[in-house]
């Protein structure tokens, strides 16, 4: 028989182990009179303390991923069960505009604040500088001929890079006035280019402010000409009203939505059959004096004659668990589901996924707000997400509907 001190020490040790197990495991399941089997340990996620780790030195990732949340059974069909979220790069400032080049097999994305563009190379996973000066580029896409289209905040224009390497200005003025800060852009198979033009880039960090008296510099305190030698030469000097535009294949510019119809337009995308146009109305941003968006996703019917749009309606108000989330960029998959990047509190921010009827069916939690996302990879079954200074990816069981 063990001495009393030894029995007490052993009993204390077992009690400590039991208490420790209770902090990491669910209640045990009885298997017999004297035998118990611990339940599965809860894997770390962005809401645990300490939260899950990311990067090359992080511990092995659990599957199914604890930060990929199924709300409706239909979302499970869109997931690849063996996939886990990974942060593949974290050297940015504010990343935006991811677009997949099917010809080049790379992901293009912008660092709006650093005024650079990068590419993620599919074969190696390496991220390289694509354009060391991008004029505070934001949204990007590739058209149905494989040409890159980019929104430039600083020069307040939309450009298309031709196959010979020349830059074609798609749009830089409307009714004789400079654009504001083209934000997001999508391509239609008929050769048209659609883009939003809010005033989010009318600030020092992401482009340049207006001249004194302009909406983004009403009191004239911002020294709008310093730091960039091209200000006032090519980049415009005074903000106009918000618009969502369409440029047809001949170069003709039309207004799709006015500020009165949809203020502060942000991300936009088509449904897979091009019968719908989805547009996000964001809240007030720097430079957005005088009006607010409703931080919701709106949808419009699109006909063969393209314009005007019809049947405007709310797709989702983006309220979740009593919190008004901030939608930003979005893409449709081949089934018509809408994958939307959202900002908000940690634990809620990340990606929301809606079915074509506007019902939330799934979420992806990330430690940072997601500005924009796209589907990439040779089979277009990898979801790439730009979030703050980081780029994340997740393999899914669906494919993106758009070319980029």
TrEMBL record:
The keyword Hydrolase applies. Gene3D superfamilies: TolB, C-terminal domain (2.120.10.30). InterPro entries: 6-blade_b-propeller_TolB-like, SGL, SMP-30/CGR1_Lactonase. Residues 39-58 are annotated as: Disordered. Its EC number is 3.1.1.17. GO terms for molecular function: gluconolactonase activity. Residues 96-386 form the SMP-30/Gluconolactonase/LRE-like region domain. Residues 1-30 form the signal peptide. Keywords: Hydrolase, Signal. PANTHER family: LACTONASE DRP35, LIPOPROTEIN-RELATED. This is Gluconolactonase. It comes from Acetobacter pasteurianus subsp. pasteurianus.
